[in-house]
Specification:
five-stranded mixed beta sheet, 5 helices
Length: 238
Amino acid sequence: EGRMIISTAQLTLIVNDVATTLEEVWRLVERFQGYTVQSKSYRTATDNLAASVTIRVPSERFGEVLAELRKLAWKVQSESTSGEDVTDQYVDLEARLRAQKATEEELLALLREVRQSEGNAQEKAEAILSIYQRLGEVRTQIEQIQGQMQYLEKMSAMATITLELLPREPEVEKPVVEEGFNPLRTLRDAARVLVQVFQGLVNVLIWVAVVALPFWVVLGLLVFLWVRWRRRRAVRKM
């Protein structure tokens, strides 16, 4: 018997018309005897229609479906596929199921034996109750194992494909002016530099004025005293 593989794929397709492509996807799914898990439409930032679709198709047709989906696209923007081998997991579940069913048969045989036995009625009732409780636990485990096996069978039988359909956006013409040429920005930068230079010059003048002030005060005082001394000396000579 072949391996049990859970196959999945994610495709992002750029298409000319999202609504038309979505209808083609649904027809494709029907043709390959699959079904749609979910479908969602939305608007892009440019207010164009886009869609997200999750479909399931027979695993043996997985490659064919992917090839057909690619044909619907103007461009395949991204694609990823994966396969998870769950054969060993399924085999382990089968072994656990056989063991639990064997335990169930043993408990049923024990239950029949206790019912047919003679003895204290109370002890017999307690034994039967204990067997029923154990049977309930075993049957719960059997149901859980069977559920896991059915899930693996279902997932490996049908591959899952998630599609993102994006609209083909119109190409934007490149501007005639080179991207690096911007007279307004250059003028703004030059004005900012001029202001910075002027501010720096004013700061220097303020520093010079503050630092040199004591020197000018002392020099002025010396000149004043010298002039006054000269005048007194001239008066004495007269």
